[in-house]
């Protein structure tokens, strides 16, 4: 480094320091020729320091970031560089300026090849851990052991039967989890080896297309000139090859149903305007809020409906399943907040507020339920810029729940109580009549009723006996 004015002892000390650090160090002149390297750099390049000096940096590091410093005269930090031999480096590169003139460039870098490989292995292990078994996969679907048990069994059969996999239809109201179920079926198919790990999942919302030509181009692909503005393009069916094609809102696919039928029957797709038939192998899952039997060609419906999976609306889910969803969405809110902000967070609901949420009706089902929970927590939470400390305790009350939801919850509770009271009343009268015919008196009848869980005192039974003319 002849342009540095250093005495001999200082130069020796500096060299010893640089040779001892863990990173590689390269110094080049304005032409990119190496004028100084340390031992780590030589080891990375699988050569010696002597062999590197005086030669151009690209002989050893073809994608050297330090050359950008010479071109643009500014520093570059944390640049990821990959060598042709497959080695990966993180590089910091700086211009060397003396008396306002650039004299060369300095690169300090570390080999992260092993770290990258280790990270890749960790990601693979995490993926395998997530997909350890089919039961674990569908356990994420709340109700898989309850109201949705039959649906999950059918989903497994559709993907995992020896003669399969089979095409299927998922039906249900908006927000019941149709897309989520389709993705779980896809994960299950990969887990059991029906699909490869890199198999695609292509989601098409058929309702998003208003122009039938554009819809056909997106789904089936197109050949240039087939219609105004058309270009050579592979469609979503081709992109789903060897994987899952998820047709969401399939009832909206008004046109080209015959082409889709041809794809399913012959396992070939022809782009719009083209003549070449392209082989494809896809599992089709169609979902809809409407009756697909009334909206699809009979032949297409028959091909798709090999398995029909019907998801119940939120109101038909059991109370325990609603509770699990409630806890899941509460924890999901907390997790999302903690990923963005560093504080202690605790979310609590007053018992009455919790019951109001669980007993309300939700027109958009599970998705609507989740949105209302998020709204209630938001309403009870101060804005992030108004937090005084690192500990945040949120208490959700009735006042934080949307008024419409509160009103629906009260109405549902009233109707439930009326129904229960009527049922108990009718049941009680039948039992009173039964025991009276056996000769029991009011006190003895009251005792038998209480044993059956009907809380009527003897004088109340006596009143009913008179009213029933018994």
Automatic annotation (TrEMBL):
Residues 10-61 form the PAS domain. One of its GO terms (molecular function) is ATP binding. Residues 411-438 form a coiled coil. Pfam families: PAS_9 (PF13426), Sigma54_activat (PF00158). The keyword Coiled coil applies. GO terms for biological process: regulation of DNA-templated transcription. SMART domains: AAA (SM00382), PAS (SM00091). Residues 141-378 form the Sigma-54 factor interaction domain. This is PAS fold-containing protein. It comes from Halanaerobium congolense. It comes from the Bacteria. Keywords: ATP-binding, Coiled coil, Nucleotide-binding.
């Amino acid at each position: 480094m002849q342009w540095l004015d250093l005495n001999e002892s200082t130069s020796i000390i500096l060299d010893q320091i640089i040779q001892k650090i863990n990173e590689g160090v390269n110094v080049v002149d304005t032409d990119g020729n190496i004028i100084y390297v340390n031992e780590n750099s030589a080891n990375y390049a699988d050569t010696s320091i002597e062999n590197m000096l005086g030669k151009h940096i690209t002989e050893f590091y073809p994608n050297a970031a330090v050359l950008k410093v010479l071109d643009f005269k500014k520093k570059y930090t944390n640049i990821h560089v990959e060598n042709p031999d497959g080695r990966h480096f993180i590089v910091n590169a700086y211009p060397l300026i003396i008396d306002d003139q650039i004299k060369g460039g300095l690169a300090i870098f570390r080999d992260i090849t092993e770290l990258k490989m280790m990270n890749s292995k960790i990601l693979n292990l995490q993926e395998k851990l997530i997909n350890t078994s089919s039961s674990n996969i569908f356990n994420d679907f709340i109700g898989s052991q309850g109201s949705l048990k039959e649906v999950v069994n059918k989903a497994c059969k559709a993907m995992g039967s020896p003669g399969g996999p089979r095409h299927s239809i998922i039906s249900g109201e908006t927000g019941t989890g149709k897309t989520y179920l389709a993705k779980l079926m896809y994960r299950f198919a990969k887990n059991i080896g029906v699909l490869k790990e890199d198999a695609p999942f292509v989601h098409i919302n058929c309702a998003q297309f208003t122009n039938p030509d554009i819809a056909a181009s997106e789904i089936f692909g197109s050949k240039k000139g087939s219609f105004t503005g058309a270009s050579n393009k592979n469609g979503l069916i081709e992109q789903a090859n060897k994987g899952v094609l998820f047709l969401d809102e399939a009832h909206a696919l008004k046109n080209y149903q015959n082409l889709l039928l041809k794809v399913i029957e012959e396992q070939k797709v022809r782009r719009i305007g083209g003549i070449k038939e392209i082989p494809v192998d896809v599992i089709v899952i169609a979902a809809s809020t409407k009756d697909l039997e009334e909206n699809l060609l009979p032949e297409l419906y028959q091909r798709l409906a090999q398995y029909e999976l019907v998801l119940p609306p939120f109101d038909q889910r059991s109370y325990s399943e609603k509770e699990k969803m409630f806890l899941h969405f509460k924890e999901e809110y907390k997790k999302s907040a903690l990923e963005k902000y560093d504080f202690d967070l605790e979310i609590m609901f007053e018992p009455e507020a919790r019951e109001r949420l669980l007993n309300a009706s939700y027109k958009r089902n599970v998705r609507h339920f989740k949105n209302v929970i998020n709204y209630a927590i938001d309403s009870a939470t101060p804005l992030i810029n108004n937090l005084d400390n690192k500990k945040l305790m949120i208490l959700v009350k009735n006042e934080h729940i949307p008024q419409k939801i509160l009103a629906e919850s009260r109405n549902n509770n009233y109707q439930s109580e009326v129904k229960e009271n009527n049922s108990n009343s009718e049941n009680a009268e039948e039992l009173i009549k039964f025991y009276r015919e056996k000769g029991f008196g009011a006190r003895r009848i009251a005792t038998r009723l209480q044993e059956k869980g009907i809380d009527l005192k003897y004088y109340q039974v006596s009143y009913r006996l008179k009213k029933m003319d018994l």
